Amino acid sequence: MKKIIALVLALMMVLSLAACGGNGGSNKGGKTVGIAMPTQSSERWIKDGANMKAQLEEKGYTVILQYAEDDVQAQVSQIENMISQKVDCLVIAAIDSGALTGVEAQAKQAGIPIIAYDRLLMDTDAVSYYASFDNEGVGRAIGEYIEKAKDLANTTETYTIEFFMGSPDDNNAVLLHRGLMKVLQPYLDKGTLVCKTGRTSFEDTCILRWSQETAQQWCENYLSGFYADEDLDICATAFDGFAYGCRSALEGAGYTLDNWPLITGQDAELMASKNIIAGYQTMSIYKDTRLLAEKCVTMVEAVLNGTEPEINDTTTYNNNVMVVPSYLCTPVAVDQSNYEELLIGGGYYTAEELAG
């Protein structure tokens, strides 16, 4: 009888251990991932955070997701709290990509790996991988769209253009401007494109914290100071928020769809997509945040499991301390001709959302 009881107890213990092992597989041994996002003021960051959280939770991780609302010190505090909570991995989309070196060093000392998300973390050796879109490619895509839309290679006309570029503390913005100018600088040199303000360098066109309000103020000043007697033909903006600001300025200056300029953007936000359909924005760069989240999740799993994720760039992203192994997703231009195929067909938005 004692042998039978012992066998039963042993069997129960084996089953219990198996069950624990199964649960450990489903919740990744109770591992927690901390995600630090910059702001909820832009629709794309809300989607980024939600997509990553959902994908990680589906794989069994616990997720701490926080937004710092473009307050650098708040983001530092949030990351410090995640470190004190002993998260197993940090995913950081920085507000200021060079302002987190201290807290990143704390994470490294605590043995917590860091994945840089969309914005490269500068001046640190604490980052393991970087997941982003090809940011110089984003700039090239915007430039090539303008080049083709205005037939710059063949036209005998001249077009006026003004630039609204991204935040000086965001390495992505530097790369975007570089890619854009690789395409457009020859036409500025030739005189096919004319920038009446003379503001074409990154230093002269960058807008701190990607501020829509600043873009609107700039555009209002340009229109009144340089374009009172001549239409502005192209607003080359690096972000849908800038395009909204330019639209407000243009409407305030009396522009209509009859003399509306070509306006570029980035992120294919819902409002931007509606503006494209209505004709108030010409194009945007479609960045499928579901794909970017998926690539980042594979990086999280790799650093936690000691394996190698898929990488497609090992040379471009030097953060002044190291070249960070990266996976770059491909950006795609979206306009009236292909929004149904890309945005609706791809399941990014429904037809009802775009019609609303």
What's this model, at a glance?
The chain is an alpha/beta fold. Helices cover 47% and strands 14% of the residues.
Describe the structure.
- This protein has helices at residues 2-26, 43-58, 72-84, 101-109, 135-149, 171-190, 202-205, 212-226, 240-252, 270-278, 289-305, 339-344, 351-355; strands at residues 32-37, 62-67, 89-92, 114-117, 127-133, 159-164, 193-194, 234-237, 262-263, 284-286, 326-329, 332-334.
- 47% of the residues lie in helices and 14% in strands.
- With 356 residues, it is of the alpha/beta class.
- A six-stranded parallel beta sheet has the order 2-1-3-4-5-11, with helices on both faces. A four-stranded parallel beta sheet has the order 7-6-8-9, sandwiched between helices. Strands 10-12 form a two-stranded antiparallel sheet.
- The chain is elongated.
- It contains 13 helices and twelve strands.
- The relative contact order is 0.12.
- Mean pLDDT is 92; it is low at 2-26.
- The protein starts with a helix and ends with a helix.
- Helix 4 (101-109) links the parallel strand 3 and strand 4.
Give the tags:
alpha/beta, 356 residues, four-stranded parallel beta sheet
Rounded Rg: 24 Å
Number of helices: 13
Question: Given the helix and strand composition, which structural class is it?
Answer: alpha/beta
Span between termini: 74 Å
Regarding quaternary structure, what we see is single chain
Give the overall average pLDDT: 92
Could you say which overall geometry the principal axes of the C-alpha atoms support?
A: elongated
How are the strands of the biggest sheet laid out side by side?
A: 2-1-3-4-5-11
Proportion of residues in β-strands: 5-15%
